[in-house]
Amino acid sequence: MTMLFVAAVEAGGTVAAGSSRQPVPWWSFTKMLTSVVALRRAEAGRLDLDARLAGWSCTLRQLLQHRGGLPDYGGLDAYRAAVARCDPLWTDDPVFAVTGADRSAVAPETGWAYSSVGYLVVRRALEAASGRDLGAVLDELVLAPLGLSASRLANVPEDMRKTPFVEGLGYHPGWVFSGVVVGPVAEAALALHRILAGYLLAPETLAAMLARHPIGDAIPGRPWTATGYGLGLMIGDMRNEAMAEPLRVVGHSAGGSGSVGAVCRDLDSPRGRTVAAFAAGSNEGVVEAEVLRRLVAD
User: Region 248-254: what's the mean pLDDT?
Assistant: First the structure.
């Protein structure tokens, strides 16, 4: 049986009865939070999302939407072998060298390619602008204002040992170079729900976050029938065999050592529900299907 933890937030902001408060790694759902930090800094005049970053040919806005032309590292043999051997954590220069980030063949804005390296560059830009680590900035600008008191950026293996997924208990979260939050499932759902409800961002900023760049159609083995990406957000359509029409959703899926997750909000129906699901294993389709089932449940 799959180890599955689920939480839901109803349209009015109430956490549904029975929602899980189990701490889990949020993996790439953290990118949504990082994007909010960048957007809040831009609102305050501390960052220019459209200025070319020093040393790079791309802008923060392009990187937040995975349109900066930078590669990824998750599928590289050298990266996986280093993690498996429990090597010392790479610093930035080896990350860029191994992935070829300094010689990317894709120019900014010519296409879309998922890039955690791009979010590492975003992280360093945010840290440089504030003079503090991403964890402190996330806490100040996102987690604390949203009332998410039990969620924090993971920094050491002990942070992973709060989670229930056996395969990930010895993992060093520093291998997620862009950063990974560990927190309760219910707080992941609350994070997305409250951000989309306008708790932190001005309406025009939230609209920019939700401006969708289309990516493609259905993903085999997963409920997505159309996919797109905003600024730190997956935006598209989901459908299962019981549905006559697809449902438009926004959120982010997640995957890492020993577990997967998905956090999504229904954008179409009056339900306005947000659901988070996390499970052991590597099959993102399992948690996405569970999220969709709960989003459309009466």
Answer: 97
